Fold each of these.
Amino acid sequence: MWTAGNWKDYEVLDTSSGEKLERWGDYLLVRPDPQVIWNTPKKNAGWQKRNGHYHRSSKGGGEWEFFNLPNEWEIRYGELTFRLKPFSFKHTGLFPEQAVNWDWFSGLIRHAKRPVKVLNLFAYTGGATLAAAKAGAQVTHVDASKGMVTWAKENAVSSGLGDAPIRWLVDDCVKFVEREIRRGNTYDAIIMDPPSYGRGPKGEIWKMEENIFPFLELTAQILSENALFFLINSYTTGLQPAVLSYLIHTAIVRRFGGHVTADEIGLPVRDSGLILPCGASGRWQG
């Protein structure tokens, strides 16, 4: 498992009964996690000193309960700064487990010794965008949500990357890639974090299991001939690392060659010493 173990401002303190206790900077949050199917004693004092608790509803969704939590605060990862705020369906605006991927591709960009054009699709609040830009890449950031793109821009400013070569686009990712093919534009690296289910700006429906393979084949058409890497993340049940590996082999390796690795990604749990699985990633390196 690839583990995001280099955080200082974030950690999973404990897990039990479908929930995880996390430290986000100076604040403690309790959030549901479907992977936590064990029921162990909650000995950590943080369970009782939490600043925010997201309660799942039996009818779907849920709601936050707050205990002296600010509307917004910041945490850092290396030279990057992220603005956090609790919002819909338990999220805070950051997936800390992705730091293990940021470290991987940042090293590739720095050691490329050439200009690197990166395309970040389904780019959310910009964690991967900022990591790539900090490593020296020129980045195109695409997300269908105007609010998420605005949030990503704020993170860029907080990280000292307000003037970095980042192109911010509110667009449907599939339609954007189709236009890039027609325009003949290519990228040296592509990052994508597609949702299990989503809608584009004009109501376009995305279902991971149905759409991901044709989209990978489409996206492969805009990889440059000297492509550096490709990264896909999945939080969809059933799309295990082996499936991601097969998809990449079929859509990319047949044309470009290169090397594929895939694994679960996870976060260390301080109290147990174990690793909490948090999805899967597939990586291709040219």
Note: The radius of gyration is 19 Å.
Amino acid sequence: MGSALQLIVGGSALVFGVLFALVSLLLQVFVPYSEYSRYLKWLTLVLFAYVATVFAVRVPWGEALQHTFIPSFTWGNESIGAIAAVLGTTISPFLFFWQAATEVEDVKRHQTEKPLKKAPHQAGDQFRRIRLDTLIGMAASNLVAFFIILTAAVTLHAHGKTNIGSAAEAAEALRPVAGQFAFVLFSLGIIGTGLLALPVLAGSAAYAVGEAFRWPIGLQQKPWQAKRFYAVIAAAMILSVGIVFAGLDPIKALVLSAAINGVVSVPILVLLMFMSGNRRIMGEFMISRPVTILGWVTTGFMGAVALALFASFIW
């Protein structure tokens, strides 16, 4: 199994990357959303391979927990850029479009459900479901992110491997440091993450573009019913694969795109806060005062990080 994963994550990564993109594209185009969404939900379980990886290596837990809650920080482009990138992966612009669009898809799929402004009596059950889904999703994603950082810190970084050029290189560098089992688990996480991220990122782009131009959209639609919507998905897939073949450093590209997401999210959050706090728009579903305060604090913090990032390039 290890040799097979080495083939996938190693020299043939580009070929398998194209294959994964093609499979994801075919699933999005030809599998109805009601079935496709179930595949994505089960696929998220592979992310816990990153959690299992930590228990395959030696972790100085005392030191790890200390630096988790009391991190060291130095002013500079890299440190501030890393903070912006972390924020950009947690509160990403594509999430706003993807989550909203999938909620609309669910409403269309269930004949008994209606938009809440037309059926406010359904709000209680729907809000409880959304709140639970969000809490579980954010807890799981942050847990996985923590263990990815922890694995890299106690293996690669601890042994001076701080310049990794690709996910395949990261997995391969992990083998001599942490052993074959850790390599296999980390490789499974990389493959599963790729299969999960491709359709979500491409789909969210299609929803954003389609809504902006008022095209027929939706993964529940047949390809001939939403041609331009699916064309955007295909273009996003092709572009992502093309970037890999262009010879760019994928790790640096990921960090840069995450930092850009952290900056771009700020004006989107500002608009969302104004809209969600406007009774004329939201009616009885206007957000509460505690949520308003928390939202503006989050927006302000992300705005401060974005300004600090710009300032770090000037001074």
Note: The CA atoms of residues 54 and 150 lie 7 Å apart.
Amino acid sequence: MNGLRKDIVLTRVSKAYGGQIVLQDLDLTIPGGKITAVMGPSGLGKTTLLKILLGLEDCEGSIDGLEGRKISTVFQDSRLLPWLTLKQNLELVCGPGCEARIADSLARMELTDAADKRPSELSGGMQRRGALARALAYDGDVLILDEPFTGLDEELKDRIAGSLCGQWREEQKTVLFVTHDSAEAQRYADEIIKLQDALGKKEERS
């Protein structure tokens, strides 16, 4: 298997904050080159899982399959730098010589006309698409996305998500996205993981 498309395997991954267990004995395989949706109730640790995969949180257990791979990410909030234009936000992660990729990413997100606007001039949905465009411009071989289509109306979401997923499948990207929307997971993902089924015994929480 191509090293950049191999599975990502989590074995007995656990995370606690103080005495509060968030993830316990998580065994999970994220298939390489496919789009995987992770679902589960609020508070079960979905966002914590993404932070662990991104290296933003430490954990117990082991994670294999991310070594040497470039990761693109979209968080729940868009995190566009407010003092830069949308195009400049993409240039920041893409670097020099990426004009064509930046233009293509903006066009795919239907944001060509907004390239020179700052985030404060964009609607929430446009900021969300801007964050997706930035992830596209970075061109990671692994994409980790937290509620990526939040704030998009259904018609726009169908166009944007359909375009993205088609491109990712063609390029055989490894994609993991969190969603609360079962219809969204069914429509766009190759595989669906219910997080509670992948966890070991958890303590009761109020």
Note: The two ends are 44 Å apart (CA to CA).
Amino acid sequence: MPMAELQTAFDFPELHRKGSRQPAVICVGGGKGGIGKTLLTANLGICFARSGIKVVLLDADLGGSNLHTTLGMDLPDISLSDFVQRRVERLEDTIVDSGVEGLGLISGAQDFLGSANIKYTQKMRVLKRILKIDCDLVIMDLGSGTSFNVLDFFLVADLGLVMLVPEPTSLENSYRFIKSAFYRLLKHRETSRPILKLLDDAMESCNEMGIRTPYDLIRVVARLDPERGDVYRSLMLEFRPLLVVNQVRTPEDAELGMAVRTACRKYFGIDLDYLGSIDFDDSVWQAVRRRSVLLEHDPESAFSRSVWKIAGTIARRLRHIERPSGWLF
């Protein structure tokens, strides 16, 4: 498809939640660092902004934020930490101009110790305010790993993207991330102390009950409380992260997405949606080195074309959002 058609092949739905307009929220996560989450976040934001959509990028990599660098910007004078530390009262006051029309940026917290481990009350205040930002779309760049903060940012999104590269470590970490996100979701929905204890134990890989997968967990829960077991099965069916495979070099790499989807369905009971792949492109690291945005610098590159296709698929998915405000609220 010609690039001009890719750039106009999607429109964006207006979402109305609980009687008032709120932004759609997308996050880009994954179990491993250095796999391209920040690059995808920045370039997706530009795709949507160039399509006339008001977008805010939020750097939620609390321990190592660098989304501004990917956009070719210097470190902004104001950041998420100003809101967390209550130096400003409104999250919107931390939005800075990215230099791309229609695209704002909330830079990550960098200027206080422990920023990666903000308190629960601070985190929930941020998450609730994200859903009130005056824009069409918020795209969040998450940190790596499976800390509760990372998982909670992932679960607040309408669409959660899990990114991986065709490497064994990335694949293993992606499985762990998906499983941990589902367990964290269950914890947010659970009130029974014995079941909460069971969930905590299940998150340990070498637990005494032999729980290795969500299937195992639900089987144990159903024995204790059949009604809760049915609820957990329903949540498993609704929990559908979106998978993106980055740095694809071969046809086998591109097929990895479907293989991961099949494995998750078979062993976890979680049915991922394979969003698409991003071709390996030598010009990506060159753009990073010169602090330029590849989508702007070389819109015909293999990377740029891949990102435009993914943006179009995301826009179509957003038309069918059923859960109104993410998983947490």
Note: The domain at 15-318 is CATH 3.40.50.300 (Rossmann fold).
